[in-house]
Amino acid sequence: xxxxxxxxxxxxxxxxxxxxxxxxxxxxxxxxxxxxxxxxxxxxxxxxxxxxxxxxxxxxxxxxxxxxxxxxxxxxxxxxxxxxxxxxxxxxxxxxxxxxxxxxxxxxxxxxxxxxxxxxxxxxxxxxxxxxxxxxxxxxxxxxxxxxxxxxxxxxxxxxxxxxxxxxxxxxxxxxxxxxxxxxxxxxxxxxxxxxxxxxxxxxxxxxxxxxxxxxxxxxxxxxxxxxxxxxxxxxxxxxxxxxxxxxxxxxxxxxxxxxxxxxxxxxxxxxxxxxxxxxxxxxxxxxxxxxxxxxxxxxxxx
Amino acid sequence: xxxxxxxxxxxxxxxxxxxxxxxxxxxxxxxxxxxxxxxxxxxxxxxxxxxxxxxxxxxxxxxxxxxxxxxxxxxxxxxxxxxxxxxxxxxxxxxxxxxxxxxxxxxxxxxxxxxxxxxxxxxxxxxxxxxxxxxxxxxxxxxxxxxxxxxxxxxxxxxxxxxxxxxxxxxxxxxxxxxxxxxxxxxxxxxxxxxxxxxxxxxxxxxxxxxxxxxxxxxxxxxxxxxxxxxxxxxxxxxxxxxxxxxxxxxxxxxxxxxxxxxxxxxxxxxxxxxxxxxxxxxxxxxxxxxxxxxxxxxxxxxxxxxxxxxxxxxxxxxxxxxxxxxxxxxxxxxxxxxxxxxxxxxxxxxxxxxxxxxxxxxxxxxxxxxxxxxxxxxxxxxxxxxxxxxxxxxxxxxxxxxxxxxxxxxxxxxxxxxxxxxxxxxxxxxxxxxxxxxxxxxxxxxxxxxxxxxxxxxxxxxxxxxxxxxxxxxxxxxxxxxxxxxxxxxxxxxxxxxxxxxxxxxxxxxx
Lengths: 303, 512
Description:
Number of domains of chain A: 1
CATH class of the largest domain in chain B: Alpha Beta
CATH architecture of chain A: Orthogonal Bundle
Number of strands of chain A: 2
Number of domains of chain B: 2
Oligomer: heterodimer
CATH architecture of the largest domain in chain B: 3-Layer(aba) Sandwich
Order of helices and strands of chain A: HHHHEHEHHHHHHHH
Largest sheet of chain A: 2 strands, antiparallel
């Protein structure tokens, strides 16, 4: 396989680790809450997954715990922002720092311990398609879940009553309230659900790709997720595309390294984040943003 | 459930709605102080009253938004407790609010689905769209289910609200000042729909302060004043306009009659717009190739559907907006805009279209606003004499402005408007640009404001009167300029202009 092909193929697992937090962020933002604590939810998910996996030897139990840890982290942000009306940006950053600190302390004993990764499962039939088959359909189950979650999220927000109420809450909560729904409850649940999904991203990173715990191992995925949602214009399929672009930039670094090509490693590591900034600026300058209406108020609110 | 009953079993002498001694207090304020009236099935019942008479509080109690302190609400002869809007909706009460409750970013059908109790967990867009189309057609309410609400005209926006309410299975419809934003043609369409509903036995309550509409549509009328019923279940045909106004205000009010003023000829234009175009922040044209002369001693009325460029014109004239093309000539000299200071020095004073955004400084008192209004330079902010100045202006304007120590941002819309009008209409102005000066004001203050505008123009000032109220424009204007999508659709002499011609120009029927 050529280097380019190798990069495109290697990008899949990393992209999926970003698809989760970005979808989570999307759900939360569609309800009108920006969650910068997504990074924290991922960290909590990653540590919860690893620790459970080490403790019980059951990787899948680890995945379940990752979801719960993500949701628990999200509930901190939801309580502050939705119930206590704290500033969304401040609360999100605090939740991230809190998660960073707590996971560093709790994860100290797990540092360096290696767990077995989630095994790859070839999908019969699909995986034998030439070229793309093995790349797309010889992955672990969390990758497949990511594939499914993208259209499922799209379908949910556009074709269910719950999704309609979610979107309406992000636009004009007062109208939703007048319509007999409870916007605060919708927002609380959306933040928790979004963070639970972000926890799955932590699990994919920890149990699907790396296989051990290190402090702050999510490396800003949660923040890139916020950027991906803007790039995607709050559309799940856009999230898939945006995550893959980031995943490719990430894969370039590891593939180039693996081939022993002499470059500056620091520059390579910075590449995905540079790509994010460049793409975001390019995308923001064309067309309209589709940002939920209530976000404007949320960002200027200081009380 | 989609349609109201055609054949009603009950005899028609049981009221569809009966309100008995309804009381609702907010702290020390008795907003509703023992209100009673009845609405028969198939009847249009008008609720009349000044600002603060308690009309909105009353209908909000009927729609389950407020819970009354005491009194009874009977539906078809049985006592009913309306604890929330959803209870009210389920029992067949529908309400179209003044500030319409739709979400711009969602499509028409999604907005409707959001409010239907019967929406299933998984949406069925096709089925719902068919239902909307059927109801739209049946009641003559043209809507486009797939379009996004933000792209709708205000009239279509209201039709969507009506469809939304109709789909809920309607027995009693409450319309809160539904006509204030509509063209005469749209008002006719709305009233046709109301008649179709009443023919099916639906009872309709309409809040308005336009007597013309009461005469057109209402079978009976109830007048509220100060939270009490002063006239109950009366027939409007048995009453004169003067009697109705006296009931609303508590004293007779002389309504301003059209003054026959000689046409102004040969006067120099104070402000002249030559082919002016203005871009909106979103890139669309706000005004396009506008030629307009503003002359002393003349009231120039400006009519148009909401968003046809009136606000851009107002902002332009007070110097708040820049222009993309053309020129603005003040006293024979082209000015570079934006330059509010220059325009103010030229004697141009504005009544802002959106006072809450453009006039109110949150946290500042009425006195401080007065000082701000008077301040001419960086250091001329004189709060000490502001109170005396405001009293002097209030004595001139007689608009009953509130105490100057009150915080402006905590006042009601009507009181903010009074403060703004008091400042603007007593200033030494050569040009007054008054946008919607009487919006949200009661009869007494409205008449007073109109008199002040007339006096300013008689004293030689130029008045630009931007209004949604065609009656107001026709009663006051020497000329009426009609805007349609930012262009000048025509200028009519005020004395001979009629509602329908203006309506047609507004919608661009003849503009093409």
